[in-house]
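Q: Could you predict the 3D structure of Arrestin-C?
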Amino acid sequence: MAKVFKKTSGNGGLTLYLGKRDYVDHMSSVDKVDGVVKLDPADFGDRKVFVQLACAFRYGSDDLDVIGLCFRKDIWIQHVQIYPENHKPELSAMHDTLLKKAGDNAHAFSFEIPNNLPCSVSLQPGPDDQGKACGVDFEVKTYLAKEKSNPDEKIEKKDTARLIIRKIQFAPSEVGAGPKADICKSFMMSDKPVHLEAAMEKDLYFHGEAIPIKIKINNESNKTVKKFKVTVDQTTDIVLYSADKYTKAVFTQEFGETVDPSGTYENTLTITPLLADNKEKRGLALDGRLKDEDTNLASTTMLRQGVEKDVLGILVSYKIKINLMVAGGGLLGGLTASDVTVELPLMLMHPKPAGILFINTHTNV
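A: Sure. Here are the predicted structure tokens for Arrestin-C:
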């Protein structure tokens, strides 16, 4: 028997049923949200039963609402009325399963999630933060009310039942060619430059997968390459009424390799950015989580071409930086020290489970 998720309202009159909580964004479309609500209308009076699906940005804990601060901003919301019935979706196999499970007096509903909405992302709370994490979430809620969405009508908590769901993306079937970058940098008091090249085998890696980076250094200068550092940066773009972008390092490692004047270096280094090494970093973007289950660094946001400007919410991207620290010689050594840096884009995602078709028409953020 397939797993069923259900939640009953405090008054016992509404029971919400869903067959799954993860809904896949295939780029061209998103899985439909098919569900059922079982009703016990004894205490409904003149109230109607509605179901809503909302995509919202949450930026505080529920406790803030007590002092009148709004802690959710709806990005997209849709309502349907199921009692008295005026929404009758075409029944799917999922509906049939849930209707059998729910029994008598159960009503089906269906929502289509637009494919220009963000995926579920949460921002990692700091060690002392309380309440629910900030981020983008999707919530299915059934409730009793006289009107569908009258802001003046008070809906009691006991008259609602809700379940958080996730909109997720998987890696496309085809992986692209690996990115390459190179730089040739000249220095004060040196006739010749330092060449740095970096390359990856492919453009997309799975969470937890080792990432090999091929590095070549050709030091034609009279300076010494003292060491170099590899960093993976996560850039989080929060797009609501105004854009807010910030970058946090999720992997940093120094390599104490020296390359003398006229020397060369060639090697393949392996790195693996993991959430386990970043548990204390407040505000880091993570894949949306249900309750307190384990999650991982947020997956790279993939957008259909043409919708980049229309998407609200949280967009996530990564880049790898390779930074050489080059020291000068002689009395001015410290003053003439310099850095040589290249950057490579990185996509981090989950592999697609067997049986899910994926049409690749993407651009990554």
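Q: Anything worth pointing out?
A: The chain is about 5% helix and 45% strand.
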